[in-house]
Amino acid sequence: xxxxxxxxxxxxxxxxxxxxxxxxxxxxxxxxxxxxxxxxxxxxxxxxxxxxxxxxxxxxxxxxxxxxxxxxxxxxxxxxxxxxxxxxxxxxxxxxxxxxxxxxxxxxxxxxxxxxxxxxxxxxxxxxxxxxxxxxxxxxxxxxxxxxxxxxxxxxxxxxxxxxxxxxxxxxxxxxxxxxxxxxxxxxxxxxxxxxxxxxxxxxxxxxxxxxxxxxxxxxxxxxxxxxxxxxxxxxxxxxxxxxxxxxxxxxxxxxxxxxxxxxxxxxxxxxxxxxxxxxxxxxxxxxxxxxxxxxxxxxxxxxxxxxxxxxxxxxxxxxxxxxxxxxxxxxxxxxxxxxxxxxxxxxxxxxxxxxxxxxxxxxxxxxxxxxxxxxxxxxxxxxxxxxxxxxxxxxxxxxxxxxxxxxxxxxxxxxxxxxxxxxxxxxxxxxxxxxxxxxxxxx
Length: 444
Hints:
Elements: E1 4-13, E2 16-25, E3 28-33, E4 43-54, E5 56-61, H1 74-83, E6 86-91, H2 103-112, E7 120-123, E8 125-126, H3 135-141, E9 146-149, H4 163-175, E10 180-183, H5 200-206, H6 209-226, E11 230-232, H7 241-249, E12 254-258, H8 260-264, H9 286-297, E13 303-304, H10 313-316, H11 336-346, H12 351-365, E14 383-393, E15 412-422, E16 425-429, E17 432-433
Parallel strand pairs: 1-4, 5-6, 6-7, 8-9, 9-10, 10-11, 11-12, 12-13
Antiparallel strand pairs: 1-2, 2-3, 4-14, 14-15, 15-16, 16-17
Helix pairs in contact: 4-6
């Protein structure tokens, strides 16, 4: 029996945007039809000219709980998520304490979600030196894959791996056909920053493209050698695009994401001392970021994820403006959709492109491509209704994040999320969260 019908003039189906009716029951999409069946007696929601599409999936989020809940936490992160149309997050294994590198630590993180899960959430396990023997235990717990750093992560409890560590772990991960996500920067001992620590140009020079390019070259080599699904997170250096394209042409199991901030901002517009823009790898120049857009258009970059990495304001050192010592991370979870849509719209992209980059393609990385990411019969009814022509201004009052610090403040963005549905249940409407604790844990 159909429990809810959503009809409108702009339903984003696999065949494109069209007038249609989506029928929902028992948390699933029962069917997508041209007209409302006469026999339907359930509630009918008419969204008229707003867009209905699959919910946003963000596989790169730092929730920081347990242990650093004062940085964010499951309650505020998942409230921000459903307010922004994000129906699934995947939490990174660092920044929490303990870090998620053992089965015991995983159980602590899972327990921390109780009563605080307002959207669906999965977890990445952590790969650090010496924990290769923990990989299978974490897989048994349900992690969706593993995350590793090739440079210091910023958290001493989560040290970077070496090539030797990767060679121990990748055959195990490959056996289970799970992805290995890699922060690709191979740092050197050379002190590259000079002069004023408040200078953004100096910070940019301190993390050059070569760090990324050398790390990506290594990961492509290991990906081919072990046939291990390898995912490059937050690509910033456009110098690696050709190398990535060649690897994909060879059929290697390689995927790549970039982040909204690399597509929306340019280094030329970041003023000295504006540490709210600090992230790693850094936001680069316009010419570089234009090339990232081209790679996204061509499918060389698979999708876009926020790398939401909040911290208490004192760690961002806004008053001193010291780029070299400030915490590196950009808070952006709730505005993932409007930021990307605003930038994409200026470049002539369509709603269909944004849905592919934020919903369909991320579903493949997290192993949910047969359940989420598209409006298809039998898929989960995790849906959003949004208006691409309405605008918002990013203010403190708008954001549900624990800390209201973001480089997007006062930006005028296109794309207002009007409704969010989890398993066919409306959890957010017109700026208000109307149902909490509706999220589920998603495991492998």
